[in-house]
Design goal:
By secondary structure, the protein is an alpha/beta fold. Strands 3, 4, 5, 6, 7, 14 and 15 form a seven-stranded mixed β-sheet that branches. A six-stranded parallel β-sheet has the order 10-9-8-11-12-13, with helices on both faces. Helix 3 crosses helix 4, helix 3 crosses helix 9 and helix 6 runs parallel beside helix 7. About 45% of the residues are buried. It comes from Phialocephala subalpina.
Length: about 325
C-alpha cells in the first residue's frame, strides 16, 4: 500500500513553534517484514519533541523527520515475516521505534505494539508507551531500585515522574520525594503518592530530605534537570546511591566548581540513559515488562495516566506552546481526525 497522507512537518527542518505545519503531501509508509501499518487515533507529546523540533536532539539513525514516539491506533496492514499474534483491525498502542507518530499512519515493529484493552481510551493509551517504558527503565534497569529504597524524582509533575511516583509506590519504596516549580504541582504529586514534595523556588530540599531520612538520603535519583542539580544530587544521595540522568534541562555543561569528592566517598553511580537510542531488543524487553506488570494495573485503575489537555492535532502549535510553558501536570495528547 502506498500513496500520501497528512503529517505534522517542520518548515526548514527545524525551528520555533511557528514552523510546525500540516503537510498533506507526506509519503504514506508501507510495512516491511515484521512490521504493522497503524492508522493513528492519538499521539502523546514528549519534551524530546520540542528539542527535536529545534534541532537540538540527537535523533537515532532509524528516525524519520516526523516527530512523535508514542501513539494509539488500529492495525491496517501487516508486513510478511513474524508479526506475532497481531492481525488487521486490532486496536493497539505502542512506541514508535525512531519516531514518526505525528501523522495519519506510521509503521511499527510488531515487537513494540501492545494490544489495547477495551477499558483504555485512545487518549489514555497514547500517553503510556514512552512515558512508562522510560520510567520502568530508569527505576528498575538503570536505577536498580530495591524495595525499601528512598527515591527522589526531579520535575515531579512531568509525565515520566508521574509514572515514577506510581511505580515506586507499587514496588515498595520507603520515602518518595519530588521537586517541582510550584506549590500546586507539589500538592498534585503528593496526592498521586509522593511522600513529600519540595518547591525548588522556596525549599532547601537537600537539607529537608537529609533531616527526614536521619541523614541517610536517597538511594535512587532520577534527574532531568542536569547542571543546576548535579552538586545537590551528590549531597542528598545515600551511600552507594544511583543517579539516573535522563535529560539536562538546565544545561549540560557543569560549573567548574563541581565537587566530585562526594561521588567518590559515597561510591555513587551516575549514569546517563536515553531510551530512544536503545536497540529494538532492549526496547522490546521493556515493552514486555510493561505488559506483564503495569498493563493490568492500568486496566483496574491502580495506575493512572493524568492528562493535562487533549488537542486536535491541527492545533499542534498550541500543544507545543503548552508543553513549553512548563505549566502542565500530566500528558498532553493530540487526536488525529
Amino acid at each position: 500500500m502506498s500513496g500520501i497522507m497528512r503529517a505534522i512537518d517542520i518548515k526548514d527542518g527545524k525551528g520555533p513553534i511557528s514552523h510546525l505545519f500540516m503537510n498533506a503531501e507526506t509519503a504514506k509508509p508501507a510495512p516491511a517484514s515484521s512490521q504493522a501499518l497503524v492508522k493513528i487515533h492519538a499521539f502523546g507529546l514528549n519534551r524530546m519533541d520540542l528539542m527535536q523540533r529545534e534541532g537540538l536532539y540527537n535523533v537515532p539513525p532509524q528516525a524519520g523527520k516526523t516527530l512523535g514516539v508514542e501513539f494509539s491506533g488500529v492495525v491496517e496492514e501487516l508486513g510478511d515475516g513474524d508479526t506475532a499474534d497481531f492481525k488487521v483491525g486490532d486496536e493497539v498502542f505502542g512506541l514508535a521505534y525512531g519516531g514518526s507518530a505525528y501523522a495519519e499512519y506510521l509503521v511499527s515493529s510488531t515487537r513494540m505494539l501492545i494490544q489495547k484493552p477495551k477499558e483504555l481510551s485512545w487518549t489514555t493509551a497514547a500517553g503510556i508507551p514512552e512515558t512508562w517504558i522510560t520510567a520502568t527503565q530508569a527505576l528498575h534497569l538503570v536505577g536498580c531500585f530495591r524495595p525499601g529504597n528512598n527515591v527522589l524524582f526531579h520535575a515531579g509533575a512531568s509525565s515520566v515522574s508521574i509514572a515514577l511516583i506510581q511505580l515506586a509506590k507499587a514496588a515498595g519504596a520507603n520515602y518518595i520525594f519530588i521537586t517541582a516549580g510550584s506549590d500546586d504541582k507539589v500538592q498534585f504529586c503528593e496526592e498521586l503518592g509522593a511522600t513529600r514534595g519540595f518547591n525548588y523556588h522556596e525549599d532547601d530540599w537537600v537539607k529537608d530530605i537529609l533531616d527526614m531520612t536521619d541523614g541517610h538520603g536517597v538511594d535512587v535519583i532520577v534527574d532531568v534537570v542536569g547542571k543546576n542539580y548535579s552538586q545537590k544530587n551528590f549531597e542528598v544521595a545515600a551511600m552507594d546511591g544511583r543517579i539516573v540522568q535522563l535529560a539536562s534541562l538546565s544545561g549540560s555543561k557543569l560549573d567548574a566548581g563541581l565537587d566530585i569528592l562526594l561521588l567518590e566517598n559515597k561510591r555513587l553511580r551516575w549514569e546517563g540513559s536515553r531510551l530512544r537510542s536503545r536497540d529494538l531488543d532492549y526496547q522490546n524487553k521493556l515493552r514486555d515488562l510493561l505488559v506483564e506488570f503495569a498493563l493490568p494495573k492500568f486496566v483496574d485503575g491502580t495506575l493512572q495516566v493524568p492528562i493535562e489537555k487533549v488537542f486536535d492535532w491541527k492545533d499542534i502549535q498550541e500543544a507545543h506552546a503548552l508543553m513549553e510553558s512548563n505549566q502542565s501536570k500530566g500528558k498532553i495528547i493530540c487526536v488525529v481526525d
